[in-house]
Amino acid sequence: MRLPRRVPWANINELDQLCSWVFMDEGDLEAKRFAINKLSAWRAVTALPHALECTLSILTARLIDTSETQQNSSWLTLRQNYAAAIIRMVNGLVDPLQAGAYARSIASIAAQLGLPSWLVELRHAATHEDLPSLEMLREAARESLTWLLHNYFLPTINPSAPRPSTAPPLRPVAPLLKQYKTLLKIVTRDTSLRKQNQPDIDAIMRDIERWLAEAKLAADFAADAYGWDAIDGNDVEQEDPREKWALERLCDALIEKGALASLSQKRRNLPSDEFVPPHASLVLWTPLLAHTHTYHPTFPSVLTTRIVETLLYERPNTGFDMDVVSLEADESQNDPSYHLALAKWAAWVIKAYDNGQENGELSLRKNVIILLASTLAPGKTEGAKKIDLLAALLGAVSSGFTELQKASDMLLSATHPLQPQHWDAGDLTVMNERLRSLMSLDGESQKYTNDLDSAPTTLLPTQSSDIGGWRLLDHHSGWKSCPIGVYYPNHAAL
Fold first, then answer.
1. pLDDT tens digit sequence for 247-280
2. Rounded to an integer, what distance in angstroms lies between the CA atom of residue 466 and that of residue 340?
3. How many other C-beta atoms can be found within 10 angstroms of the C-beta atom of residue 460?
4. Residue 257: beta bridge partners?
5. HSE-CB for 330 with a 13 A CA cutoff
6. What is the pLDDT of residues 283-324, one digit of tens each?
7. C-alpha distance from residue 60 to each of 127, 143, 217, 245 (Å)
């Protein structure tokens, strides 16, 4: 559970008042001083969010530029003040999002944030080249404040208001997976080419890792997409919803036809006694899976969960307009060989990466069994069409673990409906023998009852009594089937 976020304002009205001081009238220097004093007072009490720090720096530079003290400030000092404010703003926005294993360009991250590209170029010029002109820096300060208004102040003051969509859509990951598959096929068929193609393979893996970083930014799960409401870095056990969303999108692409499951039905499931994917598929995809697991420990859990969900239910609709999955998939829902291939991959991932404990949670094995149990439980119908496949996956997952095998056997026994029993003469013979055995105890039962009480008692009929025994009833005897407890007066006497 996420802890409450500490903010410098006592209520949202204070932030609204600050926003009016900053943006209401550009020429109102007195309002700008009120805003600077308010931000300085907040900073003395607690750390300011990066957006407010940027606002304070830009306001301070503009106030010096427009007030009477400008005469005492050189043009170089003014340019340095503006440049420092712009540099700190761009760096503070981009640096927290460099969370992947491989660095991404500042321009690509800024584009996803919707930050004007010329601000990034100005930041580069001010850092590594000559300082831009004062006029350009003034315009950059105005543009920066406008961006902060629309991307921080207004969404924070009114969270329910629609946020402007300026970021480009997430690029699809399918082309990267196709390039990776092509390269691995080349080095698999001819091992002498591995040294030549290994740099390209490493580059593709880095591109996939960068795609995951882009997807984390595109996920936008937190209250603010730009890091204003960032997850507390001190809570190491807190799950990052952005990373989970990004991994789910990658897994959705992996489980499409043409990736983990081959396009050719004959190559998906070769005859084998073991419940594992074909060797050719393992050689192609295990390097990528191992590489992703190295930088994302939760990847095996996400992958197995998405596979099982695909087997149990219809493919979920993510609700996003991003086309991130397009590996020539068609009619996957009605392809038994495709589902069997995915089930084998789930079993293989569990055997390869299950260490009995995962970040303090249940192991991969138990997670999958719980997912299957929710569908294979009595009364459930979601997986009825794939009962044999799910049973095979359940058996492969629990194999070698006594307790899990017992639980799986109990679960599978409840999935098989009871067959109706047909009575014959042999069954009646056995039942009559049991009845006579019971009646043979009548003498002792009668004596014991008389010794206890002389009052009249209800006794079992003796063997000399007219015992009808068991007999079959059918429509010829006037018997009619009915629920227990329902009485039909016209039925034949039993």
1. 888 999 998 888 888 888 777 777 776 788 888 8
2. 63
3. 15
4. 261
5. 3
6. 999 999 999 998 888 899 899 989 888 888 765 444 333 344
7. 20, 16, 31, 40
